[in-house]
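Researcher: Next sequence.
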Amino acid sequence: MAETTEITDARNIQVIELHMMDKNKYYPLALVSGACIRTCLYPLSLVKTRLQVQSKKTLYNGTWDAFKKIGKMEGIAGLYRGYWVNSLLTVPQVRPIHPRPIILSSFHQYKGVGFFDL
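Model: Next structure:
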């Protein structure tokens, strides 16, 4: 009985696709949410990079040691060194991607070949 309920509930899920959304809200909110996530995760990326670049544990002995030393020597701003350059590199990724022209051009190009025959 429980399995039937779960299957019935799964069939009532409404699928929301991009064309159904209000683009005036979606794109700005996607940009803001991406910036928030990037802001939270950037210090981890910076520490990872510094640990990989150092040679034979000359400066940092691990992740937490790197966090402590960067915070002590450079302050909180040291954890975000290079943040703005990194953020500017990701701006082109925000633009919407429309695959339809690519699919249609491929369809028309191969229309007479194999399974594209209609």
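Model: Residues 33-95 form one domain. The first helix runs from residue 2 to 11.
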